[in-house]
Amino acid sequence: MDQQAAAKLIGFGLPTRMSDRPFGVGKDGKQLLRTKGSIVRSTVLYMLESVEKNAMEDARKSSRTARIGKARDAASEVLLDCLNTAIDDPAYYVSMDYLLDEGNSYSVEFDVYLSKICEGLSGDPDFHFNRGTRGIPDAVAFFARPLPISQVFNLLPRLSAKVADVDLRVVQVKSNFAIIQWWADKDIQHLPPDVHKVFIDYTGKYMQGVLGHIPTVLKNMPRANVKEIKSILRGDICFEWEFSWGESHSWLAFKNQPYEKKNDSLPTLKTAAGYYDVAAILDIDTDIEKNLPPLPARMMFIPFGMDEKGNLVKQSRSSSILGALEQLKVSVVERLDRTLPGNVSAQERSKIIEAAKSEALEKLVERLNAAAFDERYYLTTETIFDKNRYYSYEFALFVNEYASEIS
Q1: Number of Cβ within a 10 Å radius of residue 257
Q2: 15 to 58, 79, 116: CA distances (angstroms)
Q3: What is the pTM of this model?
Q4: How far apart are CA 277 and CA 315, in angstroms?
Q5: Are the beta carbons of 243 and 211 closer than 8 angstroms?
Q6: Burial class (CB in 10 A: 0-12, 13-18, 19+), 13
Q7: Which terminal residue of the chain has fewer beta carbons within 10 Å of its beta carbon, N or C?
Q8: What are the residues facing 244 on neighbouring strands?
Q9: In tens digits, what is the pLDDT along the chain, a chain of 407 residues?
Q10: What is the 3-state secondary structure (H, E, C) of the chain?
Q11: In angstroms, rounded to a whole number, what is the distance separating the alpha carbons of residues 58 and 70?
């Protein structure tokens, strides 16, 4: 064991060894997928930026460039030395290239070590809150940017699942505030007791930073005000925060602003007419867990027609809805082709398939009507195929998700 790195780990308030593997398959035989690589990458990069900023302030102009480079290299070396010292099996040692690869996933215990080491190296007393500005990956921001802020908060359990397997719960959402809970039980059961308090403390700060910066990252608005209602550190069963913000701009203000891609792998998901294709947006992240939290029971916004101000709801074209309906039919046919016995006649097979497609469509319409907050927005198996109608982003999300589940 590297004694110098071990001493630093103790100084960061961490045990000198992790109790389990950092990624891959844990000792219990289950995959370690709690934290996505995008969070690890953003945490490391923010730490290095903080180190560079501190070096810039300390150095004279004549030696600034060299000193900044040395500080960055030194911080990188300490980070890797500490992490690899804490990892029991050399087969799981990490490199800087590995940490910056967004395609990787890690255990919650690795997240604890990385976060605390980066905090100690950064020199930023508010490191975890501030790194929250980087906690929204490009793909999630790309999808969420056109949505109203209140709708983004309402969808937090699903959006957060793209980044980490955390237990976020929506208590209440209104047009200018949201009450959100974070329950730590799911994570705590995978951590040794001596890092429970460390994990709860920094994760609470990080959650406040990520969620509080949603208006800033998505709408270029001031950070949301954060009021802590409950705290696990004070003996409550969960953290509960109220986030409040000013009036947000209409999505139309952003429809005409080109999305600045930070990641070349993100496609441009606009149709020729300039509207975002929700169905395509939902396919950005192909590595989402199958057990995502469910959608809210009810939609919050008018799905089609005129909104409260008398403006036409025109966020998603009918083509995205019709595409989901067509895919639903195709999926039903493919499923039956795999399961129907070979001795079924062509005529009988055709009848079974048509009946199954009709049943799937009826289930979809039934679920959409159950999620509508007003009977005026109920649909039928005929009206859902209206080619001349526009819809809200929220409605398109519900259609795509329900169709996927029914198929």
Answers
A1: 9
A2: 32, 15, 11
A3: 0.67
A4: 9
A5: yes
A6: middle
A7: N
A8: 177, 225
A9: 678 889 999 999 999 999 999 999 998 998 898 998 989 999 999 999 999 988 887 655 546 677 788 889 999 999 999 999 999 999 999 999 999 998 899 999 999 999 999 999 999 999 999 998 888 877 677 667 777 888 889 888 877 877 788 899 999 998 899 999 999 998 999 999 999 999 999 999 999 999 999 998 888 899 999 999 999 999 999 999 999 998 654 333 333 333 343 443 433 444 343 433 443 443 334 343 344 556 788 888 889 999 888 888 887 778 778 888 988 888 888 888 888 888 888 888 889 999 999 999 999 999 999 999 999 999 999 999 998 888 887 888 888 888 888 88
A10: CCHHHHHHHHHCCCCCCCCCCCCCECCCCCECCCEEHHHHHHHHHHHHHHHHHHHHHHCCHHHHHHHHHHHHHHHHHHHHHHHHHHCCCHHHCCCHHHHCCCCCEECHHHHHHHHHHHHHHHCCCCHHHHHHHHCCCHHHHHHHCCCCHHHHHHCHHHHHCCCECCEEEEEEECCCEEEEEEECHHHHCCCCHHHHHHHHHHHHHHHHHHHHCHHHHHHCCCCCEEEEEECHHHCCCCEEEEEECCCCCCCHHHHCCCCCCCCCCCCCCECCCCCECHHHHCCCCCCCCCCCCCCCCCCCCCCCCECCCCCECCCECHHHHHHHHHHHHHHHHHHHHHHCCCCCCHHHHHHHHHHHHHHHHHHHHHHHHHHCCCHHHCCCCCHHHCCCCCECHHHHHHHHHHHHHHC
A11: 13
Q: How far separated are the first and last CA of the chain, in Å rounded? A: 53
The number of residues making up the chain comes to 407
> Of 158, 52, 207, which Cα lies nearest the Cα of 400?
158
The token pair at 387 is: 């080619």
> What is the rounded distance in angstroms from the CA atom of residue 237 to the CA atom of residue 244?
23
Euclidean distance between CA atoms 267 and 281, whole angstroms: 9
| Residue with token string 């690589």 | 37
Give dist(CA 365, CA 99) in Å, integer. Answer: 45
| Integer CA distances (angstroms), 289 to 326, 369, 385, in order | 24, 27, 30
184 within 8 A of 194, measured Cβ to Cβ: no
| C-alpha–C-alpha distance, residues 175 and 153, integer Å | 10
